[in-house]
Design goal:
Oligomer: single chain
Number of helices: 22
CATH architecture of the largest domain: Alpha-Beta Barrel
Bound molecules: 1-deoxynojirimycin
Largest sheet: 8 strands, parallel
CATH superfamily of the largest domain: Glycoside hydrolase, family 3, N-terminal domain
Number of domains: 4
CATH topology of the largest domain: TIM Barrel
Length: 757
Amino acid sequence: MKRNITLVVLTCFISIIITSVSAQKKDDKQKMNMFIDKLMNKMTLEEKLGQLNLLSPNAKTGPFATKKYAEKLKDGSGGNIFSLSGSPDEVKLKLQLAENSRLKIPLLSGLDIIHGYKTIFPIPLGLSCSWNMPLIQQTARIAAIEASAAGYNWTYSPMVDISRDPRWGRVMEGSGEDPYLGGKIAAAMVKGYQGNDLTDETSLMACLKHFAMYGAAEAGRDYNTTDMSRLTMYQTYLAPYKAAVDAGVGSIMTSFNEVDGIPATANKWLIADLLRKQWGFKGFVVTDFIAIQELINHGVAADYKQAAELAINAGTDMDMVSESFIGALKQSVKDGNVTMSTIDAACRRVLEAKYKLGLFTNPYRNVDPDRAARVTLTIENRMTAKDAALQSMVLLENKNNTLPLKKNVNIALIGPFADNKTEMFSMWSPTGDEGSVVTIYDGIKKLNANVSCAIGTQISDDSLLLNYTGSNFDLAEQKKLVNEALELAKKSDVIVTVLGETKSMSGEAHSRTDISLANCQVELLKALKSTGKPVVLLVTSGRPLTIQNALPYADAVIEIWRLGTEAGNAVADVLFGDYNPSGKLTMTFPRSVGQIPVYYNHKNTGRPYNGERKRNFRSNYMDQSNDPLYPFGYGLSYTTFSYGNIVLSDTLLTGSNKILRAKINISNTGKYAGEETAQLYLNDPVASVTRPVKELKQFQKVFLQPGETKEISFDITPEDLKFYNSKLVWDWESGRFNVYIGTNSQDVTKASFVWNK
Ligand code: NOJ
């Protein structure tokens, strides 16, 4: 009785709070609407179009390319700006130029803050291998705290484009191939940037990109066509965008590619119908760089006026750099091709973003040189950067327990990336403070003075690649470098190499057809291996490389991605076992480029491959296994984990309001304490549409001491069984299901259950 009364009181209390919060929200919305109505009543058409125009000081495209951006800020034809550079004071002065405009509307000040502002974290693909949402959120929070003080209120992140093709250079900016994990990461980053309240001085408005399906560029060639079924869009590619919208992202950037034959920037179905109507997105949509002008090249517009009309009528609100809106839409309204209400709706959405950021009450709320000095590159920020770097590394091989190293061994540290600050960053960290980077050499030296370092090799001997980058391969120089490395190697107990690709070999517009380790690097490894000393290979890259050619010459391999400011300290901790690697791949590592696209959540086909490569008339290759080099979810530890059998709370369920509990024991069977990420996959073997062989549905991290066993449990509900059917309805179907739990997407324990509606 007493309990019931408490429950009733509690329920009343909660509903009072909910009612008053929603009343408050309604009140806030009314205030905002009144403010914007009043402002828009004063605005001319030109001024409204100015709000739809996003300038960049460095961009020299569009019909008004010769006019300086400062002029445009003053006359109100440029209502927003991105990539302003300089000290916080200088940035503020530039933003203040808008005060000379008639209505003095404050500016959105954007920047590509992709993996940190001054404190640089691992590239997003690396960070995703941590599978650690609070940590990922914290990196975005720190980026926002640092960048907001320096004059920015808007970041072009997170990039959530799912990709199954490591030839695409931009895989480094995303979170890999999985829709579920990608969605979790997208939401964590949005929350990190935007904080609890956008008006807070430390918040940045996030910009989700690139909407949509940009990661599916054919043949991994950047900006290329994408073409896929609606089912694949809904089931796989759209999921992370939707998760970010649900997490409250404030803005969205269109992608360069076409979707269903219509470029994303002009795609009404994508923006007006799916994003706004179906998903209820209330923020504003900005194009990617000159994407409106590119509609002409795509072949859907004859000139920039028509391109502008297509874009605004599709639901795009803001024109990045092409200046087609400001250049054309006045005439388009006169011609009746664009209605005033369309312009008003777009302008309102942009003004709402400014209002939500609190810019009308305090246009420079966030620019604060003192705060910038206080909050930038702090010890705490660096500690998070180190933690992120530690958790991003993935141990791929560890023959004969080569790692961890003893602290007193003599180390020959070899490679062009070994003592290199610049290369710990990526093409997306231009704001980072390079001087503060700890190189791998410096990091190791702190823990073991017996280390000497040599460059060992040039980056590449591929003449076509070198031709592109404007460099040369010098044979005599290479011999000298290898000999120097061998001299060091001979005097050492162990050889640690740091090889891979440079930061300018991945990222936007950096697609590659050959993603193996360069020949000259493999030749160096071979020479080092011939000394008989154990060889550790640290691979730095912005994508999964096809490293099969290097494996015979390495005893241990760690994928270190591009680790950022704290790279050296983190690598040293891992090498010496002060941190036991725990990262798990979020993108499949192919054996060769010929296997691409290769991903874990593929379909079974009518003639499935069953590991027997020699069988004819099966879906397999003649010359290679279907299996990847390293599957999604893969990553070793210095210890070993063993999984027991899955115990299900039930094997026959009826009705949709039930919960099925799957339990499993995980034991640490090795010598080191360590963290494991246990992964739960589901499979629906008979459904109205073909379903993937496995889909990640949940995961859990568990820390175990040597010899320790812990039981973990996952609660499965019908929500986990849902998929998009051929009518694109998100639902589940009765029948038998398989559940898999394991250390990666391949090595799993299986159980089955039947669940009927
Ligand atoms: C083009 C890129 O595709 C996009 O990701 C970036 O945010 C913009 N340029 C602005 O720099």
